[in-house]
Design brief:
The chain is mainly alpha-helical and 192 residues long. It has 11 helices and no strands. The longest helix has 15 residues. The mean pLDDT is 91.
Length: 192
Amino acid sequence: IETFKSEDVTTSYLAQGHLIRLAKYSVPILRGCLTHKDGAVRSRAIETLGKIANAEIAEKNGIERDVSSLDDLVAAYDRELDPQVKVQVVDALANFDSVPADKHARVVQTLRKAINHPDTFLHTIAAAALLEMNPQDGIPAIIDKMADSTYFGDDQWNIVRLLKKATGQDFGTSATEWKKWWRENEGKVTDK
Protein backbone atom coordinates (compact mmCIF):
# COMPACT_ATOMS: atom_id res chain seq x y z
CA ILE A 1 0.00 0.00 0.00
CA GLU A 2 2.91 2.35 0.63
CA THR A 3 3.98 1.83 -2.99
CA PHE A 4 0.35 2.15 -4.09
CA LYS A 5 0.07 5.64 -2.57
CA SER A 6 3.37 6.81 -4.03
CA GLU A 7 3.44 10.32 -5.49
CA ASP A 8 5.36 8.85 -8.44
CA VAL A 9 2.71 8.05 -11.06
CA THR A 10 4.68 5.17 -12.61
CA THR A 11 5.29 3.51 -9.25
CA SER A 12 1.65 3.90 -8.26
CA TYR A 13 0.49 2.57 -11.65
CA LEU A 14 2.73 -0.50 -11.36
CA ALA A 15 1.45 -1.16 -7.83
CA GLN A 16 -2.11 -0.85 -9.10
CA GLY A 17 -1.42 -3.37 -11.86
CA HIS A 18 -0.03 -5.79 -9.30
CA LEU A 19 -3.10 -5.35 -7.09
CA ILE A 20 -5.40 -5.97 -10.07
CA ARG A 21 -3.62 -9.23 -10.94
CA LEU A 22 -3.95 -10.30 -7.29
CA ALA A 23 -7.63 -9.33 -7.25
CA LYS A 24 -8.88 -12.14 -5.04
CA TYR A 25 -6.32 -11.26 -2.39
CA SER A 26 -6.16 -7.49 -2.81
CA VAL A 27 -9.89 -6.67 -2.70
CA PRO A 28 -10.12 -6.97 1.12
CA ILE A 29 -7.08 -4.71 1.50
CA LEU A 30 -8.47 -2.20 -1.00
CA ARG A 31 -11.82 -2.18 0.79
CA GLY A 32 -9.97 -1.16 3.94
CA CYS A 33 -8.29 1.65 2.00
CA LEU A 34 -11.68 3.22 1.23
CA THR A 35 -11.68 4.76 4.72
CA HIS A 36 -7.96 5.63 4.81
CA LYS A 37 -7.21 9.15 6.09
CA ASP A 38 -5.20 9.92 2.93
CA GLY A 39 -7.50 10.97 0.09
CA ALA A 40 -4.99 9.80 -2.52
CA VAL A 41 -5.10 6.29 -1.07
CA ARG A 42 -8.92 6.33 -1.09
CA SER A 43 -8.96 7.56 -4.69
CA ARG A 44 -6.53 4.92 -5.93
CA ALA A 45 -8.40 2.19 -4.06
CA ILE A 46 -11.68 3.29 -5.69
CA GLU A 47 -10.10 3.30 -9.14
CA THR A 48 -8.47 -0.10 -8.59
CA LEU A 49 -11.66 -1.72 -7.30
CA GLY A 50 -13.44 -0.41 -10.40
CA LYS A 51 -10.81 -1.96 -12.63
CA ILE A 52 -11.04 -5.28 -10.78
CA ALA A 53 -14.80 -5.22 -11.46
CA ASN A 54 -14.27 -4.51 -15.17
CA ALA A 55 -14.96 -7.66 -17.22
CA GLU A 56 -12.58 -6.71 -20.05
CA ILE A 57 -9.68 -5.97 -17.71
CA ALA A 58 -10.27 -9.23 -15.84
CA GLU A 59 -10.27 -11.20 -19.08
CA LYS A 60 -7.15 -9.41 -20.37
CA ASN A 61 -5.27 -10.19 -17.14
CA GLY A 62 -6.57 -13.75 -16.93
CA ILE A 63 -8.21 -13.17 -13.56
CA GLU A 64 -11.70 -13.69 -12.26
CA ARG A 65 -13.75 -10.52 -12.21
CA ASP A 66 -14.58 -9.48 -8.65
CA VAL A 67 -17.66 -7.35 -7.98
CA SER A 68 -17.77 -7.99 -4.24
CA SER A 69 -16.75 -4.38 -3.47
CA LEU A 70 -19.98 -2.88 -4.81
CA ASP A 71 -21.54 -2.10 -1.43
CA ASP A 72 -18.24 -0.67 -0.19
CA LEU A 73 -18.06 1.67 -3.20
CA VAL A 74 -21.69 2.76 -2.73
CA ALA A 75 -20.88 3.52 0.92
CA ALA A 76 -17.78 5.43 -0.20
CA TYR A 77 -19.94 7.56 -2.51
CA ASP A 78 -22.25 8.40 0.39
CA ARG A 79 -19.37 9.08 2.78
CA GLU A 80 -17.12 11.17 0.54
CA LEU A 81 -17.54 14.94 0.55
CA ASP A 82 -15.15 15.78 -2.29
CA PRO A 83 -17.02 15.81 -5.64
CA GLN A 84 -13.86 14.66 -7.46
CA VAL A 85 -13.68 11.54 -5.32
CA LYS A 86 -17.40 10.98 -5.93
CA VAL A 87 -16.63 11.16 -9.68
CA GLN A 88 -14.10 8.38 -9.21
CA VAL A 89 -16.73 6.28 -7.44
CA VAL A 90 -19.15 6.85 -10.33
CA ASP A 91 -16.43 5.84 -12.79
CA ALA A 92 -15.74 2.70 -10.75
CA LEU A 93 -19.43 1.82 -10.51
CA ALA A 94 -19.74 2.05 -14.30
CA ASN A 95 -17.69 -1.18 -14.37
CA PHE A 96 -20.40 -3.07 -12.51
CA ASP A 97 -22.44 -3.92 -15.59
CA SER A 98 -23.93 -7.38 -16.04
CA VAL A 99 -24.35 -7.92 -12.30
CA PRO A 100 -27.38 -9.48 -10.57
CA ALA A 101 -30.51 -7.32 -10.44
CA ASP A 102 -30.13 -6.36 -6.76
CA LYS A 103 -26.57 -5.11 -7.32
CA HIS A 104 -27.61 -3.37 -10.55
CA ALA A 105 -30.37 -1.56 -8.64
CA ARG A 106 -27.83 -0.28 -6.06
CA VAL A 107 -25.57 1.04 -8.83
CA VAL A 108 -28.50 2.78 -10.53
CA GLN A 109 -29.67 4.27 -7.22
CA THR A 110 -26.20 5.73 -6.61
CA LEU A 111 -25.99 7.10 -10.15
CA ARG A 112 -29.41 8.74 -9.68
CA LYS A 113 -28.09 10.40 -6.50
CA ALA A 114 -25.03 11.60 -8.39
CA ILE A 115 -27.05 13.02 -11.28
CA ASN A 116 -28.76 15.28 -8.72
CA HIS A 117 -25.50 16.47 -7.14
CA PRO A 118 -24.82 20.22 -7.55
CA ASP A 119 -21.32 19.66 -8.99
CA THR A 120 -21.64 19.99 -12.80
CA PHE A 121 -18.83 17.60 -13.67
CA LEU A 122 -20.10 14.94 -11.25
CA HIS A 123 -23.69 15.02 -12.40
CA THR A 124 -22.61 15.05 -16.06
CA ILE A 125 -20.40 11.96 -15.58
CA ALA A 126 -23.22 10.30 -13.64
CA ALA A 127 -25.74 11.12 -16.38
CA ALA A 128 -23.52 9.49 -19.00
CA ALA A 129 -22.99 6.40 -16.80
CA LEU A 130 -26.71 6.12 -16.01
CA LEU A 131 -27.64 6.47 -19.66
CA GLU A 132 -25.18 3.73 -20.60
CA MET A 133 -26.08 1.36 -17.79
CA ASN A 134 -29.81 1.93 -17.51
CA PRO A 135 -31.40 3.86 -20.41
CA GLN A 136 -34.91 3.41 -18.95
CA ASP A 137 -33.85 5.55 -15.97
CA GLY A 138 -31.18 7.63 -17.69
CA ILE A 139 -33.21 9.02 -20.57
CA PRO A 140 -36.01 10.65 -18.52
CA ALA A 141 -33.58 11.85 -15.83
CA ILE A 142 -31.43 13.59 -18.42
CA ILE A 143 -34.42 15.03 -20.27
CA ASP A 144 -35.74 16.50 -17.01
CA LYS A 145 -32.37 18.12 -16.29
CA MET A 146 -32.12 19.53 -19.83
CA ALA A 147 -34.96 21.91 -19.09
CA ASP A 148 -32.32 23.96 -17.25
CA SER A 149 -29.90 24.90 -20.03
CA THR A 150 -27.11 25.54 -17.50
CA TYR A 151 -27.41 22.20 -15.68
CA PHE A 152 -24.83 20.33 -17.75
CA GLY A 153 -22.85 23.50 -18.46
CA ASP A 154 -20.32 23.18 -21.27
CA ASP A 155 -21.14 19.47 -21.54
CA GLN A 156 -24.74 20.08 -22.67
CA TRP A 157 -23.96 19.03 -26.25
CA ASN A 158 -22.05 15.96 -25.08
CA ILE A 159 -25.15 14.89 -23.17
CA VAL A 160 -27.29 15.52 -26.26
CA ARG A 161 -24.87 13.37 -28.28
CA LEU A 162 -25.21 10.55 -25.73
CA LEU A 163 -29.00 10.87 -25.78
CA LYS A 164 -28.93 10.73 -29.56
CA LYS A 165 -26.75 7.62 -29.46
CA ALA A 166 -29.05 5.92 -26.92
CA THR A 167 -32.30 6.79 -28.66
CA GLY A 168 -31.52 7.29 -32.33
CA GLN A 169 -33.30 10.65 -32.07
CA ASP A 170 -32.03 14.21 -32.27
CA PHE A 171 -34.02 17.03 -30.75
CA GLY A 172 -30.98 19.08 -29.83
CA THR A 173 -31.37 20.76 -26.46
CA SER A 174 -35.16 21.03 -26.69
CA ALA A 175 -36.39 19.49 -23.46
CA THR A 176 -39.96 19.93 -24.71
CA GLU A 177 -39.36 17.83 -27.83
CA TRP A 178 -37.42 15.21 -25.89
CA LYS A 179 -40.23 14.95 -23.30
CA LYS A 180 -42.81 14.57 -26.03
CA TRP A 181 -40.76 11.83 -27.69
CA TRP A 182 -40.23 10.06 -24.34
CA ARG A 183 -43.98 10.04 -23.56
CA GLU A 184 -44.57 8.33 -26.91
CA ASN A 185 -41.65 5.89 -26.70
CA GLU A 186 -41.01 5.13 -23.04
CA GLY A 187 -42.07 1.49 -23.28
CA LYS A 188 -39.97 0.87 -26.37
CA VAL A 189 -36.59 1.59 -24.76
CA THR A 190 -34.98 -1.33 -22.97
CA ASP A 191 -32.15 -1.47 -20.49
CA LYS A 192 -28.91 -3.14 -21.43
